[in-house]
Amino acid sequence: MRRAWPRIASRFLDSVKDNSKINKLSAFTLIELIVVIAVVALVTLVVIPTVTRQFMPRRSSKVGCSNNLKQVGLSFRLWANDNRDQFPMQVSTNAGGTLEFVETPFAFRHLQALSNELSTPRVLQCPHDKRRGWATNFTTDLNNGKVSYFVGVDAQETNATMFLSGDRNITSGRISKNGMLLLTTNQTIGWTKEIHVRCGNIGLSDGSVQSVDNSALRRLVRNTGVATNRLAMP
Description:
alpha+beta; 7-stranded antiparallel beta sheet; two-stranded antiparallel ribbon; 5 helices; 9 strands; elongated
């Protein structure tokens, strides 16, 4: 029995050494831990923004578009405050308005009149309107092709529910020869897939902006209180 003890002790010590080697091999060193944390942080910084851009582009673009139209609406109202509460569409070009352009296809002229109130012509282009680029200035570079928004030529500051501006992708209205879109309450009006995918933003005469689907758009048309809404389309 006494002779067996040395062998047992030796085996025990060998097993302890083996376990300590395994523990050393399985444990992280400080450098390895720092490397793992750095890799996880890098993956997080790269992957999460990419996934966010894939799943939330429409929401962010709609917010940017709504903010643009709020600036447009505010600019119209500031212009009206200096012109006896009239928008440019009711004021002659001789007085700085755009009345003579109402029956023409040059919708951008009504927005060009706001050059002193708007900070930049870039706000006239919806961030999600991929078919339109923005203008670099209000004078020589602005035209219909660099505008994403219509203008309600009959909008009045005294009628808060009338259409003042909005996304250009409204469909099913009657297009006149001068590029005017005519909306009436007995039409099937809606948004196309372009820009915000069957949704859109409408700026009203009171300066507010509403993001609406097809059914809500039709309600807004009825709420204007006029038989026909004339929209100058870019």
